[in-house]
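User: Please predict structures.

Assistant: First:
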Amino acid sequence: MASQLKVDTITGVSTAGSIAVTGEGNSTTTNLQQGLCKSWINVDGDASTPSIRDSLNAASLTDTATGRYQLNYTNNFSTAKQQSGAGIARRSGNSQGCIVGLDSQANELRTSDTGFSVTNDAGTLVDQDIATLLLMGDLA
């Protein structure tokens, strides 16, 4: 018989913000909060004014230059340079490879915002139709 659990809030018993989930094989546990994406963004970077298509924990986006952006968080991360992230990008109708990464020319990882850039496979900064970035880490 299938079960269904409906709740609005899950809180750990010993530590409110820490919930362990039993992993595959039933021999290890994973901290649920550590495994959640804390911020992600999908950007229309090819528009005359780049805009956010959809997001989580993204207050605003600033277009700082061709292929360069600054993501400003709604809820800050707890410590600068402690986040981990990944991203992808593509141009409509174009099979050219793209790389999304932290932007060394911008502010990099900070508690309130992150600079990121998009380059083509030749390493040239470009505005792409779709640019996405996701970040993991501890929120303040």
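Second:
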Amino acid sequence: MVTAPCTSNCVPVNYPAPVVSGGTLVGCQPPPGSCLPVGLHLVTCRATNICGEVVDCEFQVRVIQ
């Protein structure tokens, strides 16, 4: 949970990159540092391995005011 300032439409949200074992993190959407408005947001991160398999993980970020 992150709190946005009263006078702001959004707040930059930073989160640690997920740990990937046996593969490579491709990226996350929205990326860390994105300015998110008040509400509940789903972050999806994607990783691949040497065989080309793709795996996603998701978590929620709640921005309150």
